């Protein structure tokens, strides 16, 4: 007896995957997924149901939309809990069983929901601490280093506490907290969450996030102690490089928190930070800095955050003036420890020092367990690489990246720093015999949900892909940064702009990048509509704001990427003013459609650029600027059309057409040759759609000839690297693109792999073949931008590409040649996609027939384009294709 194929709702969520439990918006978007045994299943309609306050509400969604559906009900109120579920009807008219009810919980949602003050330790006079001496003013490098690593009030950690008697049973207790600095909140001296470095790094003048956690289980009837550590963090760091550092904060470390207690008898009480709290800057953390590290003296520990304890140096707090209008609930996943890695080797340096190797360049901290005499100090200095058997610390520049722990002498002691993190594979340990200490590395980053995988039969390609993954993990710490180890770690916009498509395949970046884009827009508004070079902005003396192609274009590109990858219309709605403002700035910079003025970083880190002049690329910077002008105008026109802004759509489409015509007049010959005869010039012209159709083939042929003449080595920097493989593929030279990925000669993607790299390097030659670090002032061994080629690997080798937003319609078009077998998986917003294939005749390269299995999730379709076959469109289910 046969049974009908079953379909059912398996997930309903609000916000992005991995987002905090408590809503980041009063109107959170809804996404649901269906599992189905039926082939070709799709949604015909859905009814969203909500119940709150005894009232049941319904809203009908017609069609297949099931990702990032706008909240259709009245906005949530602070501390409200609603329950939602979805009842889905298939396109066949069959209604599925209702999905499970899902709680949607809110803490504070708006600034007016926040009644807590910001409080600081009375003894904290760090606001008056002098800025470090500057090389700009003649200070020596030694003086600058000494000032940055010297202890002082601005590098201490404040501790706060308030006694809390609980007289009756608690039904629910929600704690919301934030800080000027980074905070670890505790109840009875136990952390309330595994979140680290909260509230993260934002454009503090405009946006300050807060976390909300349920602490009901911690508040049984009896005496309790509310407590918190607040370290300097990004809020109070000295940012800069080249011996020129700036203080950007305007006050002491401060805490703001409110605890809402709902008692079982119906009573409600709210405890807030106010004058009743006490605080101190005395304690065991004697120094804390993101760049420099942390120093901890266990002999100074006390029990001041425990019930009945004594807080050394405690005094009543000072209540500060602070604008609550900046406050926003955190909507992105938290930073936390996601993995622990053991020491795999102990190396003796050339000078006899002990160096620990954890086997992987990572971002995080070391945790030590040790027993020894009181006053013994263990020092840990971190580095990404060894150079001639010594720590390679020169690339760290003015970042000490060093931690110290002084033992209390009370048996076995365990410690890890709270308020810093490092980029490292190696750590030099002094002050203790290696056999007397246990050390593990804790990997730390924004805990994004992994969504994409690729594996092949070529180990070097798999290692390259793994390096890309580790590069994203290491640089996604609260914001997307350019590097995690030296005195920089800024949210450079050009780096993320080129990497966003790769990142969004590998991880669910929807909430993470949406949050960061709000900072980008806030900073942009403060500098006259210019897309910032980095965000959050620090000090305008650190790179004065200037229109910068590829970097400032983050304002248009990344929202469009999020729309394509996650079917997120909301991000376009939120960011549209930012997108439009940037294109209007470029229009003002351009003359007759050409943008040919101002400084441009353009194809940054072209491999021919001298070590000390990384902007000197083979490609005309104004060619790049004009190409991006076209791209951004096109994206704004598309965004306007999506939002129903027809006049804007027509206006910006006309702007794009004018730029395209000007580009061809200025930079392209009638035969399809570029005035800059470089890989990047042809790549942007082909991939951005700047060329007339009849010139794509000759331009592609010229690009292939350049690549082949160069021995298939890479010839691109930041702008060309993500798209040169696509340009070759689009123009009929896939084999040449594949050959570029097979060489390990310098410069190439596989050269770092051949040198033992476990992350993506900043430069193609960050380490030279003789094991010497690149002599340039700027070198990082964990820098994801050049790993943006993985986007092409996912689509052309793995065979998974979005044809419609969110992978609602999928292009499956894998090709052999670079590898003979591959499996790609992507957990899209509609469900898991899988493509597994094997070449029937590897000798035929890209033309080899493939044996393939394609898994298409419900509510989507796929166009399957395999060599030697006509493309075929299939619905959901598992599909097998013989060669």
UniProtKB/TrEMBL annotation:
Alphabetical UniProt keywords: Hydrolase
GO annotation, biological process: carbohydrate metabolic process
Annotated spans, Disordered: 1-23
Domain Alpha-L-rhamnosidase C-terminal: 799-876
GO molecular function terms listed in the Swiss-Prot or TrEMBL record: alpha-L-rhamnosidase activity
EC number(s) given by UniProt: 3.2.1.40
Pfam families: Bac_rhamnosid, Bac_rhamnosid6H, Bac_rhamnosid_C, Bac_rhamnosid_N, Ig_Rha78A_N
Reactions listed under catalytic activity: Hydrolysis of terminal non-reducing alpha-L-rhamnose residues in alpha-L-rhamnosides
Positions of the Alpha-L-rhamnosidase concanavalin-like domain: 350-443
Gene3D superfamilies referenced in this protein's UniProt entry, alphabetically: 1.50.10.10, Galactose-binding domain-like (2.60.120.260), Maltose phosphorylase, domain 3 (2.60.420.10)
Keyword check for Phosphoprotein: no
Signal peptide: none
InterPro entries per record: 6-hairpin_glycosidase_sf, 6hp_glycosidase-like_sf, Alpha_rhamnosid, Bac_rhamnosid6H, Bac_rhamnosid_C, Bac_rhamnosid_N, Rhamnosid_concanavalin
Limits of the Bacterial alpha-L-rhamnosidase N-terminal domain: 169-339
Domain Alpha-L-rhamnosidase six-hairpin glycosidase, first and last residues per copy: 450-797
Main enzyme class: hydrolase
UniProt-listed PANTHER family: ALPHA-RHAMNOSIDASE (EUROFUNG) (PTHR33307), ALPHA-RHAMNOSIDASE (EUROFUNG)-RELATED (PTHR33307:SF6)
Protein name (Swiss-Prot/TrEMBL): alpha-L-rhamnosidase
Organism from which the protein derives: Microbacterium betulae
Upper classification of the organism: Bacteria, Bacillati, Actinomycetota, Actinomycetes, Micrococcales
